[in-house]
Amino acid sequence: MTFEQLRTFLWVARLGGVRRASEQMNLSQPAVSARLAALEDALKVRLFERSPRGVTLTRQGEMLKDYAEQMFFVHEEIRRRITHPSAIEGTFRVGASETIAQTWLPGFLERLSLEYPRLSVELSVDISVNLRESLLARKLDLALLMGPISDYSVVNIALPDVELSWFQAAGRGQVDFAATPVISYARNTRPYRELVEALFRRYGPGVRVYSSTSLSASIQMIAAGIGVGPYPSMLAGERLRAGQIEQFDPGWLPRPLSFTASYLSEPRNSLAERCADIALEAASQVR
Amino acid sequence: MTFEQLRTFLWVARLGGVRRASEQMNLSQPAVSARLAALEDALKVRLFERSPRGVTLTRQGEMLKDYAEQMFFVHEEIRRRITHPSAIEGTFRVGASETIAQTWLPGFLERLSLEYPRLSVELSVDISVNLRESLLARKLDLALLMGPISDYSVVNIALPDVELSWFQAAGRGQVDFAATPVISYARNTRPYRELVEALFRRYGPGVRVYSSTSLSASIQMIAAGIGVGPYPSMLAGERLRAGQIEQFDPGWLPRPLSFTASYLSEPRNSLAERCADIALEAASQVR
DNA sequence: AGAGGTTACGGGCAGCGTAAGGATC
DNA sequence: GATCCTTACGCTGCCCGTAACCTCT
């Protein structure tokens, strides 16, 4: 009986299939089968009932699952309390929404590589809805998105809000929302819906809203005078100094964007836990 | 980090030396060194301070020891509750005093091999003092002896007392303890000392006592008329029926012999625990 | 035919024992 | 020199991935 056998057993038990576990663990499917067979042979006990559409735990498999989870609880404690961070290796999959990618994500990744010098990072920048989906599908280890994610298996660490301001092309003069398009976030995002709702309530159904999945494309459109829009104050710096855009005040602001660092709690994920902390530090440092 | 690395670490920590652990584990000494080095490399943490006369735990080593012990607690639970007995293999070292070897030990070994068909047994028959010493030196996994062993690390399971009766050669007539040697157990055993004390108290210092480390030699001497002696009633059967010896009653009897099945509790020894139970069953069955 | 799992087989690597090499008393 | 641990070095055996096979829908 080895750790790897038990870990494999747990993933197969959790995901209900050899194939699914093999994908989760970046392993060939026969390798997972072999590990299970080896474990069953080591204990001389049948752990799964095989059926054509997957596997289910036997009574003894259920019992073993409890014990195996206890083992990995202790295992994670060892990693947290004793293992030096430089011993942690493998790939850590981070998902971030673009706002974060454009602000403190570099600082976060720098801290990460400093604390975990042997850990490689796989970064995906996407809209929060997709990040949420990827996290729940275990395609990500940590998601930095507009949260929180309401799911019993997800832990959400609140990150500092991102304040928005209105921006327009420099020297554009008074803004008429009835005539000027508002350039906003991608559809299917919470700030987009909130912005559209606020605009309609204030200026009626005549308001035009452009949406863009790219934050930098948005600010370029604003700079080009195509429209105006709310934009994270802290991102405006360069173009503001270059005199391409300027801030204006229509008398109201969309709500600040609230972000979370979110990760699955299920496999007692101490690495993701610590990385969420690092993200919080990095995000707080910028302000 | 593997189970074997952790197990090796624990033994080195407990015994305070690589060499001692290697003996305990039936492993070459470099193999133990290599396992420790591999563990330290896996955690990227120094676990031992090496000194010329052994090793001592570092602060982090101390912490790991606690976690490792938790791991093996769970590990033992898995063995107890889930592992099929036929999966248990290796060598189980049993020590037994001769009285037991001559009575229910065969029954015990039969039950043992039935429940653990892949377990091989290493049997040592010796006097209880030596068995005690071997057990404490971890040279035995289970000792069936005149117990209990008063040591905080030893668990003693009481076994049924063995009743004694006086025997002499058939047709010898009235026994005069002043003239007839008493053939008894080996020196350095509790029943020997108790017998000598009782004889002196009753018949004065003139009584002669022969001691023998072999129970079957004793009964042969009795049958040959060399002397008389107390002897487990249940062992007398064959020679009694053959008319070689006969029981007699001098009006008193030595106290029954009290036995225990004893094992070390330290490494949460569930196998020894179960085997002690089997021993109790085997011993009780005979009566 | 396709989805899910097992069996067959060759190659790479981890871990063992033997033997030699420090270091400290 | 004795004791204790580490380094060096073949060798074996385990475990992985590829590929073929089995079995239900």
Helix content class of chain A: 40-55%
Average pLDDT level of chain A: 88
* Most extensive interface, chain pair and sizes: A-B, 24 and 24 residues
Quaternary structure classification = homodimer
The name of the CATH architecture of the largest domain in chain A is: 3-Layer(aba) Sandwich
Q: Structural class, judged by helices and strands of chain A?
A: alpha/beta
Major β-sheet profile of chain A: 5 strands, mixed
Number of helices of chain A: 11
Number of strands of chain A: 12
Radius of gyration of chain A: 24 Å
* Count of structural domains of chain A: 3
The CATH class of the largest domain in chain A turns out to be Alpha Beta
Strand order of the largest sheet of chain A: 4-3-5-12-6
**Outline type of chain A:** elongated
| The CATH homologous superfamily of the largest domain in chain A | Periplasmic binding protein-like II
Instruction: List the helices and strands of chain A in order.
Output: HHHEEHEHHEHEEEEHEHEHEEH
CATH topology of the largest domain in chain A: D-Maltodextrin-Binding Protein, domain 2
Head-to-tail CA distance between termini of chain A: 50 Å
Low-confidence runs of chain A: none
Beta-strand fraction estimate of chain A: 15-25%
